[in-house]
Amino acid sequence: MSWRSERIWIELITGSRKTSNFCWAFILFLGSLGFLLVGTSSYLGRNLISLFPSQQIIFFPQGIVMSFYGIAGLFISSYLWCTIFWNVGSGYDRFDRKEGIVCVFRWGFPGKNRRIFLRLLMKDIQSIRIAVKEDIYARRILVLYMEIRGQGPFP
Question: CA-to-CA distance for 154 and 62, rounded, in angstroms?
Answer without folding.
Answer: 46
